[in-house]
Write a structure and sequence with these properties.
It is built from one helix and 21 strands. The protein is mainly beta and about 375 residues long. The two termini are about 20 Å apart. May play a role in an as yet undefined retina-specific signal transduction. Could bind to photoactivated-phosphorylated red/green opsins. This is Arrestin-C. One of its GO terms (biological process) is signal transduction.
Length: about 375
C-alpha cells in the first residue's frame, strides 16, 4: 500500500479511507475494492451510513443537466451498510492497516467487482469543450442516510464523501509472437498480382514504444508501388443501448519506398502512436485519469471470452497501404492500392509495487 487516500464529508461526521485508487482487472478476476469509513456517531441517532461502488457511463458534464435529464448512466452499482455494522469483511492486510490508522471509529467494507465491467476510459474533449469528459468512471461514495435502506433517497451533499477510483488492465506477462496478415491483389490489364505480407514482432506493445512492422512485397505486375503508408487506428466500441464503433487514426507515416515491376521488398518500418500527437482529436479514447494528471492513449481491452461487456471497449489495428501507380503516360498515382491489417495490443506494463505508506487527503 503506497498511500492512504482520504475524503471527509462536509459536516465532518464521516470520512472515507482507501489504500489505493487503481484496481487491476486480471481478466478472470478483479482486485477487491476495500476501505474503511470513519464515523463520528455523536448526534447520529437513528441514522445509517452506507457505501456504494458504482461503474457509470458519463455522457457529459453535470452542469448541462438543466431539464431533468441524467447525463450519467449506471452500468453496475452495489451498496452496503457499514454503520451500524451489518457485515464483517475478511480482514486483509490492507484493511488491518487502514483500521489501525483510523482507530475505533473505523468500519470496514469490501466490494467484489464482476469481470465483465469495462475499464476506466475517458473520451478526449475538443479544444472548446469544458466540464467533465465523457467516458466510463468508477466511484466509491459513503453517505449518511435518514431513511431505512431507500436507494432513491435524496442525500445532502454535506452528508457525502466520495473518491474516484480506476479499474485498469496491464499487459500480459508473457508476450506472444505478433500477428501476421497477407493479401494478393490483381489489377486490370495484369495477369499477375501484388503480394503483400505484414507482421508485428510481438503481440503486445507498451505505450510510447516504437512498433516495428515487417513488410514483404512481391510485385509480379507491370505496375510500380510508389509509396508505403503505415498507420495505427483506434477502434472505440461504445456499448450501451446499442453498439457503435468509432475509428480514429492515431498514427500515420508514409515511406517513399519504390517497388518496381517484377521486384520484391523485404523491410521493417517503425511507427510510434502517442497521445501527444493527438491532443486536438475530439472523442479519442484515453486511459481514465484521476484529477488532471497526464495519461496516454486508452489501453486495449483484454478479451473477456464470451462475456458481453457494456461501456467502452478499446482495440487497435495496424494498417499497411501500398500506393500502386497506374503505369500510364502521366506516371500518376491514380491506380489502385493494396491494404493489409493486423490487430495491435497497446497497453502499460505492470508497475513494481511500492511499500511505503503516507496519507493523501482529497478534502
Amino acid at each position: 500500500m503506497s498511500k492512504v487516500f482520504k475524503k471527509t464529508s462536509g459536516n465532518g461526521h464521516i470520512a472515507l479511507y482507501l489504500g489505493k485508487r487503481d484496481f487491476v482487472d486480471h481478466v478472470d478476476s478483479v482486485d477487491v475494492v476495500e476501505g474503511v469509513v470513519k464515523v463520528d456517531s455523536s448526534g447520529l441517532e437513528g441514522r445509517k451510513v452506507y457505501v456504494y461502488l458504482a461503474c457509470a457511463f458519463r455522457y457529459g458534464s453535470d452542469d448541462l443537466d438543466v431539464i431533468g435529464l441524467s447525463f450519467r448512466r449506471d452500468i453496475w452499482i452495489k451498496r452496503v451498510q457499514v454503520y451500524p455494522a451489518t457485515e464483517n469483511p475478511t480482514k486483509t492486510p490492507m484493511l488491518e492497516s487502514l483500521l489501525k490508522k483510523v482507530g475505533e471509529q473505523g468500519y470496514p467494507f469490501a466490494f467484489q467487482m464482476p469481470t465483465d465491467l469495462p475499464c476506466s476510459v475517458s473520451l478526449q474533449p475538443g479544444p472548446g469543450d469544458s466540464g467533465k469528459a465523457c467516458g466510463v468512471d468508477f466511484e466509491v461514495k459513503a453517505f449518511l442516510a435518514n431513511e431505512a435502506d431507500n436507494p432513491d433517497e435524496v442525500i445532502d451533499k454535506k452528508d457525502t464523501c466520495r473518491l474516484m477510483i480506476r479499474k485498469i488492465q496491464f499487459a500480459p506477462a508473457n508476450n506472444k509472437a505478433g500477428p501476421k496478415a497477407e493479401i494478393s491483389k490483381q489489377f486490370m490489364m495484369s495477369d499477375k498480382p501484388v503480394h503483400l505480407e505484414i507482421a508485428l514482432e510481438k503481440e503486445c506493445y507498451y505505450h510510447g514504444d516504437p512498433i516495428t512492422v515487417k513488410v514483404k512485397i512481391n510485385n509480379e505486375t507491370t505496375k510500380t508501388v510508389k509509396k508505403i503508408k503505415v498507420s495505427v487506428e483506434q477502434l472505440t466500441s461504445v456499448v450501451l443501448y446499442c453498439s457503435d464503433i468509432y475509428t480514429k487514426e492515431v498514427c500515420c507515416q508514409e515511406f517513399a519506398e519504390t517497388v518496381n515491376a517484377n521486384s520484391t521488398l523485404d523491410k521493417s518500418f517503425q511507427i510510434t502512436p502517442l497521445l501527444s500527437n493527438n491532443k486536438e482529436k475530439r472523442g479519442l479514447a484515453v486511459d481514465g485519469r484521476l484529477k488532471d494528471g497526464d495519461t496516454n492513449l486508452a489501453s486495449t481491452t483484454l478479451s473477456q471470452g464470451e462475456k458481453e461487456m457494456q461501456g467502452i471497449i478499446i482495440s487497435y489495428k495496424v494498417k499497411v497501404n501500398l500506393l500502386v501507380s497506374s503505369g500510364g503516360l502521366l506516371g500518376g498515382l491514380t491506380g489502385s492500392d493494396v491494404t493489409a491489417e493486423v490487430p495491435l495490443t497497446l497497453m502499460s506494463p505492470k508497475p513494481a509495487e511500492v511499500a511505503d505508506i503516507k496519507l493523501e487527503s482529497s478534502d
